[in-house]
Structures are given as C-alpha cells and as structure tokens.
Write a structure and sequence with these properties.
The protein is built from ten helices and eleven strands. With 285 residues, the protein is of the alpha+beta class. A hairpin with a 4-residue loop joins strand 7 and strand 8. Helix 7 crosses helix 8. The two termini are 35 Å apart.
Length: 285
C-alpha cells in the first residue's frame, strides 16, 4: 500500500468527522435529486470545505499506523504532511481525463470530484464519488463504470437532518440489483456503508484499523460477472413455490417463459437437446 492510499484511509475518515460537525452548513444546501452527481451546490460546498477548512490531517495526524485485516502499515511523515492542494469539479480538462483513464480499469466517466494531492511536492490525483439520498438505497453506477476501491462521500438528508459517511465504493454496495433495462446498476446504500464503518473501522490507540467481516463474495460477483448473478436469481425464482404477495411482475413473466420453454425443449429428442445446449454454450459472450 503506497503513501497516497494510506493518506486517503486517514483523510476520508477525518473528512467524515468534519462534515458531521458542520451539519447546519450542509442543511443549507439545495439537494436537487437523489444522486449527488447532479447536485452542483453540494459539489461546490465540498470543494470549498476541503480546500479551505479540511485539506490535511489534523486530529488523525498522530496516527502511527493503518491496520488492514491484521496487516500493519506504518504511517510516515510524508503521509501526515500530505496536503490537498485543490479540488477539481467537472467538466475536467482533456489532459486530466487522459491521466485518469490510464488508471481506471473500467469504463471512464467524469468523476464527481478529483482531489489534487501534494505529497513530497508531487501532485497526485484521486477521484471521489458523491451520493446523496433522502432514504437509504439508490441505484449506483453501471457495473462497467464501478471502481470498487474508489472513495465515496455518502450523504443522507431530510429537510431538518443530515448524516455523512465516507468509505470505499465497494462497501456501499448492498448486493441488490434491479432487472436491467440497459447496463445493470447495483444499489448503493448509506446504511450499508455506515454500518460497515461502525463495525470494521476503528481507532485503536495510535492506529486506524480496517477489518472486514462476513462474506463479501456476492458483491464481488456483482462486479465481476453480474449476468451469472442474475441467472442464479432467476433460477431461484422459478423454483420458489411460495409465490409471495406483491412480488415484481417480472417473476410471473419468468414462470410463463419457463413453461413455454420447457414445452418446446421437452419435444426435442435427446440428441437435439444435447445439440441445443452445446449451441447455447458456444454463443455465450
């Protein structure tokens, strides 16, 4: 883990604390939708807050190490002396786009924010995703666009209250995904990220510890092969005999489809069935 990654582990924790201490200022912002990437006032507020009030480590400056799943990483002076020089909001320059594209193992989209970080006098660029919600869960980014370790600022707000949590995008995913009309968008959840932080992120003496618990395999599957995840869920639906009330219309449509499919499949000879299955496998992309 390099010094920029260590700095971000500490800094995003500190930024979360700072923002929760300035809730009245956040409440004055006009939240225009349930997705922060359309909330220009929120972006402008965060840009000013980070550049002028929270651009370095303060209360976490005395941390000696970051512990990730029982592996300890020492925090050097180059980490504690790191400064956020500026925050870039979209639209970003072509030059910066090219820099960010080379680092992203996913379909590139303009970031909500890009932190320009000075470490030992050298500029580094770290993108941050913004999410806001009035309730809890909202559709996240397309699976092709998701960078699991990207940092996210997640804000839950009503007319008279606001809460902030921060963390890596992966830990905001709640494993739910609606039937895709185009590219699927796994849901992200404020409570999912907040609860993960509450259990897995701790200050222990002069160390900040991150310890994952539970099985995260379904989240990884959503990001690596979402089509298999959907296929398994659809299989579970057609084999489920409980038929719960208020279920999505698509479940009923699946049952009708399976009945028609089975009628046609059962009419095939054993040889035709094997040829058909082989043809399906050949055409899977």
């Amino acid at each position: 883990m390099n010094d920029i990654q260590l700095f971000m582990r500490l800094y995003m924790y500190e930024l979360e604390i700072w923002l929760n201490e300035h809730k009245q200022e956040l409440l004055s912002i006009s939240f225009q939708s349930d997705e922060a990437n359309t909330d220009r006032p929120l972006k402008e507020f965060l840009k000013t807050a980070i550049e002028q009030n929270c651009n370095c480590l303060s209360r976490l400056k005395n941390i000696d190490s970051v512990n990730i799943d029982n592996e300890s990483y020492p925090v050097s002076s180059s980490v504690t002396d790191t400064v956020i020089n500026s925050v870039i909001l979209p639209p970003i320059s072509d030059e910066l786009k090219n820099i960010l594209k080379k680092r992203k193992n996913a379909v590139f989209t303009e970031p909500d924010m890009c932190l320009v970080i000075l470490q030992n006098g050298n500029p580094e660029y770290v993108t941050v995703e913004l999410k806001s919600t009035k309730n809890d869960s909202i559709p996240g980014s397309s699976v092709q666009q998701v960078t699991p370790d990207e940092w996210v600022i997640f804000i839950k707000h009503t007319s008279n209250s606001v809460e902030v949590t921060t963390g890596q995008y992966f830990y905001a995913i709640n494993s739910k995904m609606q039937f895709p009309d185009r590219s699927p968008r796994p849901q992200v959840s404020f409570n999912e990220l907040r609860n993960w932080n509450s259990i897995c992120r701790k200050i222990e003496g002069r160390s900040v510890a991150y310890r994952s618990i539970g099985d995260e395999s379904e989240k990884y599957a959503l990001l690596t092969d979402w089509q298999v995840v959907l296929a398994k869920r659809w299989t579970e639906i057609v084999f489920d005999r409980s038929y719960p009330k208020g279920e999505p219309w698509f479940n009923n449509n699946l049952r009708k489809f399976i009945l028609q499919f089975l009628a046609q499949y059962d009419a095939l000879s054993d040889k035709e069935k094997e040829e058909y299955k082989a043809s399906l496998k050949r055409n899977i992309k």
